[in-house]
Amino acid sequence: MEQIVINGANRLKGSVEIEGAKNAALPILAATILTSEGKVNLDNIPPLSDVIIMGKVLEALNIKVEFDKFSKTMSIDATADLNSVAPQELVEKMRASIVVLGPLVARLGYARVAMPGGCAIGSRPIDLHLKGLKQLGIEINQQAGFIEATAKDLHGAEIYLDFPSVGATQNIMMAATLAEGNTVIENVAREPEIVDLANILNKMGAQVSGAGTDTIKIKGVKALHGCEHSVVQDRIEAGTYMVAAAVSKGDVLIEDAMYEHNRPLISKLIEMGVKIEVTDAGIHVVGPEVLQPTDVQTMPHPGFPTDMQAQMTVAQLMSNGTSAMNETVFENRFMHLEELKKMNAKFRIEGNSAILEGPTKFSGAQVSATDLRAAAALVIAGVIADGETRVSRLEYMDRGYYQLVSKFKKLGVDIKRVSIDESGRETLITDITDNSKLA
Length: 439
Ligand code: EPZ
Known about the structure:
Blueprint: E1 2-8, E2 13-16, H1 22-31, E3 35-43, H2 49-60, E4 64-68, E5 73-77, E6 85-86, H3 88-93, H4 101-108, E7 110-114, H5 127-135, E8 139-143, E9 146-150, E10 158-160, H6 166-176, E11 182-186, H7 192-203, E12 207-209, E13 215-219, E14 224-230, H8 235-247, E15 251-255, H9 263-271, E16 275-279, E17 282-286, E18 296-297, H10 309-318, E19 322-326, H11 335-341, E20 346-350, E21 353-357, E22 366-368, H12 372-384, E23 387-392, H13 394-400, H14 404-410, E24 414-420, E25 426-428
Parallel strand pairs: 2-15, 3-14, 6-7, 10-11, 18-19, 22-23
Antiparallel strand pairs: 1-23, 1-24, 3-5, 4-5, 7-9, 8-9, 11-13, 12-13, 15-17, 16-17, 19-21, 20-21, 24-25
Ligand EPZ binds at residues 23, 26, 96, 122, 124-129, 163, 165-168, 189, 306-307, 329-330, 372-373, 400.
């Protein structure tokens, strides 16, 4: 078993480099399925386990993937005859691979993709994906845990999404690029990762407009081709380090971070008394001696991101009073609070709100991650807790945070990653820089 061991409390100081966005890289890799000529050359690809799995899904479709994890570049060649089945064991490992369905059925006229499971934070239905694809003329059959999609006549449509689902927007948008005629999708997701996907689709020869607004228009084309693209920076990784600086009375530059991609988080941190300066080099965060409480509600972009909810509850628990966190996007995303209770957190849950009592004197404890962002929240709590904190279930963390231990160490935190054998013997391990773990 592996654990992160942190001795607190620490004040973060220095600057931190942010990777390319996981939640942009994954749909962008799926989009390469659409390119029937030329190669797609990508850079700023985060070397994360989710990205590796998506690469394996593409290889199973007979797509050539070369990933240089050190230079964070990827070259993808999807010009061969593709397979039409996405393997069950990979789709179940990484539910986001459901976004290969739209591009695959648009390219081949047929696709078979395993139903993605739910996960700890919610049942993660895909009804909106399937409803939109059907409106494009795609026949959907669900049986034996698989989705079978057939597109005899892929045509444009006027689609309204009941909820601005990120995945549904991506799946439908990609399928529509090769449909006959025009598609209008209303009430779409507006996340920066949607804009990044639309940008690369247009570089591939698609005609997509309106990304980042609530309506996207697509004019279908015959075929898409290779291109070059650099993945947008990960606003959630950037936001994670902003919160870590804010709660540790730190003084940190988040390199090349963009104010536009984190406005709701930044305005909430300023409300709490955090000093934030937007500079040419990135976003400079200085944490105050005392944080003021503030209420937060997660919403689809441009609202406060649900992927920053767990991290933000640590700041609210540190603050000098009572705060509410209202989670409106996922039905079960407060599991990290049960773990933080072991570190002295006091809270109560009322429906989809958590009422958080601060200030908390966090003390170190053995805790375990329950999902990707919960892992980040537990590490942040460990950074500011008195004593030793051990975080386990690191496979969640490795899905979304590259070299987290090295980055926190560089910011002055007493932190290490160890592997513990059956006899309890601990061996220090480097961050997954040797990338063997990413094989
Ligand atoms: C993406 O998931 C992200 N994942 C999530 O990030 C993020 O939390 C989420 O968007 C919201 O921003 C990737 O991009 C790989 P949704 P996705 O479809 O596309 C309901 C992380 O930590 N819904 O916008 O699955 C659904 O149940 C991860 O990096 C339907 O009801 O999110 C949920 O309540 C976690 N029917 C809500 O919409 C559907 O057909 C948001 O889901 C689809 C979704």
